């Protein structure tokens, strides 16, 4: 197996497993441990995984955000509930911004029922879902494609956002610490901040597992959002912190 194919195979395996040992990968791909270490070094340098003792992981940490494909498979039912609840904040004829997150991106499937709409996004999954849909005026932000985030970022995307205005923006974040949102990647943070600045109303969609986490870069205080949607109420101490900070929290509980 060629090295590029093997490295893609390692990533495909980690998307399902989350983590793996060097020994497991060496056995699975029929190569030496040294070859696996070289592959993992290359993938880590590209920002696609993080090496841990004895192996590798694509699970998030304070410095590392997971691959888009891995995040898509996490908390699926909760993310669907959040998207269904958040879409009630949209009215036909409005302009909507959707960020790169897998949680906010789930809104796309509900938008056909609210046409006509203008949708602005850097999320390639949303672009693919809405391209060619009648009644959807789709504005795809330019920029450099990130395989890890499955979206577009950088100077071109930022310049476009500075020239646009929207009625409502839907964002996700990888970590909620105290009454603030954080993210591991500074370029992603910049895009999200510009989306917030471009919108009259702003909503954050985060599954309950994001609470109590931290990441390297401060995104914004949660009170900057008109509402924060989550699928399960945070622990009492965390809820007290949010209430004291004036955060509007909407818990979309599982009816089952």
TrEMBL record:
The source's superkingdom equals Bacteria
Any one GO molecular function term:
DNA binding
The record's Gene3D superfamilies line, in alphabetical order, gives:
3.40.50.1360, Winged helix-like DNA-binding domain superfamily/Winged helix DNA-binding domain
Q: Which UniProt keywords apply?
A: DNA-binding, Repressor, Transcription, Transcription regulation
Q: Name one Pfam family in it.
A: HTH_DeoR
**Residues of the HTH deoR-type domain:** 3-58
PANTHER family, per this entry? Answer: GLYCEROL-3-PHOSPHATE REGULON REPRESSOR, HTH-TYPE TRANSCRIPTIONAL REGULATOR SRLR-RELATED
Q: What is this protein called?
A: Transcriptional regulator of sugar metabolism
| Species this chain originates from | Mesorhizobium australicum (strain HAMBI 3006 / LMG 24608 / WSM2073)
